[in-house]
From TrEMBL:
<dbReference type="InterPro" id="IPR011051">
    <property type="entry name" value="RmlC_Cupin_sf"/>
</dbReference>
<comment type="pathway">
    <text>Carbohydrate degradation; glycolysis; D-glyceraldehyde 3-phosphate and glycerone phosphate from D-glucose: step 2/4.</text>
</comment>
<dbReference type="Pfam" id="PF06560">
    <property type="entry name" value="GPI"/>
</dbReference>
<dbReference type="InterPro" id="IPR010551">
    <property type="entry name" value="G6P_isomerase_prok"/>
</dbReference>
<protein>
    <recommendedName>
        <fullName>glucose-6-phosphate isomerase</fullName>
        <ecNumber>5.3.1.9</ecNumber>
    </recommendedName>
</protein>
<dbReference type="GO" id="GO:0004347">
    <property type="term" value="F:glucose-6-phosphate isomerase activity"/>
</dbReference>
<feature type="domain" description="Glucose-6-phosphate isomerase prokaryote">
    <location>
        <begin position="24"/>
        <end position="175"/>
    </location>
</feature>
<dbReference type="InterPro" id="IPR014710">
    <property type="entry name" value="RmlC-like_jellyroll"/>
</dbReference>
<dbReference type="GO" id="GO:0006096">
    <property type="term" value="P:glycolytic process"/>
</dbReference>
<keyword id="KW-0413">Isomerase</keyword>
<comment type="similarity">
    <text>Belongs to the archaeal-type GPI family.</text>
</comment>
<keyword id="KW-0324">Glycolysis</keyword>
<dbReference type="GO" id="GO:0006094">
    <property type="term" value="P:gluconeogenesis"/>
</dbReference>
<keyword id="KW-0312">Gluconeogenesis</keyword>
<dbReference type="GO" id="GO:0005737">
    <property type="term" value="C:cytoplasm"/>
</dbReference>
Amino acid sequence: MKPYTIDFDLLTGICKSGKVQPVQRRVSQMKMQFADPEAAQKAIDSGDPVLYEFSTLLNDEKKGTLAFGSTIIYPGKIGDEYYMTKGHFHTILDSAEVYYCLSGKGFMMMETPEGDVDLQEVHPGEALYVPGRWAHRSINHGTEPFVMLFVYPGDSGHDYGTIETKGYRKLVVERDGKPVMIDNPKWK
Ligand code: PAN
Ligand code: ZN
């Protein structure tokens, strides 16, 4: 592979040259992961909004490479739960990841298979290190798009199934206008 340069916008995370098209995730793709599936169904019926989109600027999936890109979580709620990403473990569980907040603000909800839980709030100019073994989900509790750059080992892989089946141990919901972390009543 040869060195190369690619653009993306610092505020929106979008690759303006169009070399990479973002992957969009809508409510219908995550209905059962929200605490209130009825509220999710209402959102689906009224236009199925995009919750987030991400652009993987490079990932050739080989050992020794770095995958990188940007992710945008839009502001909004399903019931009282903020828009969020699906979240995943890396298939090679020890693979770490670095996130750097470009604009907006939000949380990273993280947990290990052993049950440790950590919630970190990030703002523009802050980097977050997600160590290996920690599942990670981005949550936008702000009013602007929450945009981050990410970098991880190219051969990490993504295990979505564990989170889809078990759910996260904790959720972030709005109470009296503020975000609070609560136990996930559906966690298995
Ligand atoms: C990120 C995420 C991106 C979208 O690139 O893949 O933010 O979130 P989901 O993958 O959970 O839908 C990353 O963590 N890659 O490893
Ligand atoms: Zn990841």
